[in-house]
């Protein structure tokens, strides 16, 4: 584990994106853009390692997130085997650099001093003043154009301990926590993993990047993805929030199951339906999590039933998904959310044998055949399940596929759901000419 630390606006996130060859971390000239720890993978000369981007270390600033960001930086330093201390070659040594250098010297961890923003050879001479920090030779780099990053990675790899290769990100299920701002997404991830991994405040828009967290407890192994809250386009008025929303949408696209957080104190709103539509459009598994249930006064069975019915009515016609009432603060039913998300993921992988499928579905078709269209009788002869599809996909072979309308497809889907457990996952029904 390699941690990137330094004061704000020295180019830590740009360096993180350069080394991981991604655009995962949001980069903006605004100081304090990064808040939570952002993890990535680097592969260099056959060796791969984890790298973590942190927020800028600040003291006595007007930033209300100062204490939380500094706590995240301290945790990253504690976890790291090696630290990249990034400084700004254009601005030289500052009081904050001295402050961070003092913390790193006390940590007793191997530190590589990275003088960033050496965008041309003219700035090379400025790096000499960083010897005053007492952390050895500075490595001149330009995170924006890649200058010097190869030499830096060589030095990083030389100091790395030998380690077993980790499972790649693609091999493990990914569960994205999505919803409106302030629905409790970061709080519930902190409750899941039992540590303050994500910054939580009452301010909407606290989370900016999409943060991946590995969860491997109680026999489970998957990634939890914390995302920024998705607001209406008309209310997004700054670049950083725009990029946060784009990353949230990308996280939905890359996930297997989405856990949609709804604020119990506000009920279901139009934006919740928009986010649900986004999940549906991408054919992802769904678990609806009604958070802040501890703040609701009426917790009767009738109130729960009414809440569930109103959610299903707004999300119709897709209504076969689990709804769980939780509280991230009191940890009420939070592990039920994890168990249910895993079940939904398994439902997405479910394969029905063709013989069993035909036995059940041909009887259902005989009991209620497709309605004739313009005097033409539609005959469905055979059904099979497509193997290897990301979403459970069923193909019905018939003589006139173009005349089978949406209501009858929905009837077939309902019959499939009645006989096999596909709770929480969309199902594709296709008609093909036999």
Protein described:
- This protein has helices spanning 12-20, 66-79, 95-107, 149-159, 185-193, 239-254, 270-281, 301-315, 334-349, 354-367, 406-419, and strands spanning 2-5, 38-44, 47-53, 82-88, 111-116, 138-140, 174-179, 211-215, 222-226, 257-263, 285-291, 323-325, 380-385, 393-398, 428-433.
- It is α/β, with parallel strands linked by helices.
- Helix 10 (354-367) packs across helix 11 (406-419).
- 38% of the residues are buried.
- Mean pLDDT is 83; it is low at 197-201 and 203-209.
Compute the separation of the termini in Å.
Answer: 56 Å
What's the overall average pLDDT, rounded?
83
Shape descriptor: elongated
Q: Using only CA atoms, what is the Rg? A: 26 Å
Q: What key phrases describe this protein's structure?
A:
434 residues; alpha/beta; six-stranded mixed beta sheet; 33% helix; elongated
Secondary structure layout plus pairing:
Layout: E1 2-5, H1 12-20, E2 38-44, E3 47-53, H2 66-79, E4 82-88, H3 95-107, E5 111-116, E6 138-140, H4 149-159, E7 174-179, H5 185-193, E8 211-215, E9 222-226, H6 239-254, E10 257-263, H7 270-281, E11 285-291, H8 301-315, E12 323-325, H9 334-349, H10 354-367, E13 380-385, E14 393-398, H11 406-419, E15 428-433
Parallel strand pairs: 1-3, 1-4, 4-5, 5-6, 7-9, 7-10, 10-11, 11-12, 14-15
Antiparallel strand pairs: 2-3, 8-9, 13-14
Helix pairs in contact: 10-11
Short description:
This protein has 434 residues and is an alpha/beta fold.
């Amino acid at each position: 584990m390699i941690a990137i630390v330094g004061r704000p606006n020295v180019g830590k996130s740009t360096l993180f994106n350069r080394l991981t060859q991604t655009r995962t971390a949001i980069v903006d000239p605004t100081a304090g853009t990064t808040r939570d720890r952002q993890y990535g993978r680097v592969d260099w000369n056959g060796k791969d390692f984890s790298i973590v981007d942190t927020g800028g270390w600040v003291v006595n600033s007007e930033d209300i997130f100062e204490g939380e960001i500094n706590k995240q930086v301290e945790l990253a330093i504690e976890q790291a085997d090696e630290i990249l201390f990034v400084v700004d070659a254009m601005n030289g040594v500052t009081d904050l650099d001295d402050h961070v250098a003092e913390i790193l010297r006390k940590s007793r961890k191997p530190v590589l001093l990275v003088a960033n923003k050496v965008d041309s050879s003219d700035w090379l001479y400025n790096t000499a003043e960083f010897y005053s920090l007492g952390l050895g030779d500075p490595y001149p780099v330009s995170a924006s154009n890649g200058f010097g990053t190869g030499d830096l990675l060589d030095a990083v790899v030389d100091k790395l301990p030998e380690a077993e290769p980790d499972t790649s990100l693609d091999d493990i299920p990914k569960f994205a926590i999505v919803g409106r701002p302030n629905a409790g997404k970061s709080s519930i991830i902190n409750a899941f993993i039992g540590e303050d991994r994500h910054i939580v405040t009452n301010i909407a828009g606290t989370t900016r990047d999409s943060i991946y967290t590995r969860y491997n407890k109680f026999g489970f192994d998957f990634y939890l993805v914390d995302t920024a809250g998705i607001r209406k386009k008309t209310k997004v008025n700054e670049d950083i929030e725009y990029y946060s929303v784009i990353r949230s949408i990308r996280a939905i696209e890359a996930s297997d199951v989405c856990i949609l957080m709804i604020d119990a104190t506000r009920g279901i709103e139009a934006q919740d339906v928009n986010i649900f539509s986004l999940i549906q459009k991408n054919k992802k598994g769904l678990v609806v999590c009604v958070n802040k249930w501890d703040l609701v006064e009426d917790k009767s069975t009738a109130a729960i039933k009414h809440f569930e019915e109103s959610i299903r009515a707004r999300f119709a016609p897709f209504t076969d998904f689990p709804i769980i009432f939780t509280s991230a603060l009191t940890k009420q039913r939070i592990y039920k959310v994890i168990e249910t998300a895993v079940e939904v993921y398994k439902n997405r992988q479910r394969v029905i044998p063709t013989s069993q499928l035909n036995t059940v579905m041909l009887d259902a078709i005989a009991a209620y055949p497709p309605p004739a269209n313009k005097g033409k009788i539609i005959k469905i002869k055979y059904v099979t399940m497509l193997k290897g599809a990301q979403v459970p996909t069923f193909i019905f072979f018939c003589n006139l596929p173009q005349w089978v309308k949406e209501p009858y497809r929905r009837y077939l889907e309902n019959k499939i759901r009645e006989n096999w457990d596909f709770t929480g996952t969309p199902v594709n029904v296709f008609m093909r000419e036999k």
